[in-house]
């Protein structure tokens, strides 16, 4: 079971996602978990952590740009920066994320894959309840893998996953 335990309405500045970008088909075959493992093995995060100007030390999954018919989306495994880094690691992209009001939902549960799978629906339900809607002018979503909330389970074996949605008032 996953539950939304809290949320914050924050004003995110314009940020820059830096990392490895995947072109992900909207089918049952999800390549994202295997790519996270691959990026840990290649040392991606060690290279990103050396760059100046990180907005947060958290590792992020950045979902963006559903091109055309919505049959696929782009996903960046990386980190967020306050400005585009001068020296982007080889194999990485930089993608600008428009700033503005954003709701971050904190989703807690024991099963990591279930928590991640439920984060969107739980956070969007809170967005609607608060009188907001998804801001389609800022077409991105963020998955926050915070240390220690996500990386270290609590005494009951639960983790907390951060899920960010750009919003506007209805």
TrEMBL record:
User: Which SUPFAM superfamilies does UniProt cross-reference here?
Assistant: Probable bacterial effector-binding domain
Annotated InterPro entries: Reg_factor_effector_dom_sf (IPR011256)
Tell me what this protein is called: Bacterial transcription activator effector binding domain-containing protein
Lineage start: Bacteria, Bacillati, Bacillota, Clostridia, Eubacteriales
């Amino acid at each position: 079971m996953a539950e939304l335990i809290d949320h914050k309405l924050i004003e995110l500045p314009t940020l820059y996602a830096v990392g490895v970008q995947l072109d992900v088909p909207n089918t049952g075959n999800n390549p994202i978990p295997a790519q996270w493992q691959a990026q840990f093995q290649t040392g991606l995060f060690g290279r990103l952590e050396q760059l100046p100007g990180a907005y947060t030390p958290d590792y992020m999954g950045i979902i963006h740009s559903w091109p055309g018919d919505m049959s696929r989306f782009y996903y960046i495994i990386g980190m967020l920066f306050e400005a585009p880094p001068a020296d982007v690691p080889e194999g990485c992209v930089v993608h600008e994320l428009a700033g503005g009001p954003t709701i971050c939902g904190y989703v807690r549960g024991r099963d990591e894959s279930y928590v991640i799978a439920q984060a969107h629906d739980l956070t969007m339900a809170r967005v609607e309840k608060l009188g907001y809607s998804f801001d389609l002018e800022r077409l991105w979503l963020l998955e926050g893998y915070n240390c220690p909330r996500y990386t270290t389970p609590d005494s009951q074996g639960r983790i907390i996953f951060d899920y960010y949605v750009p919003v506007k008032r209805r």
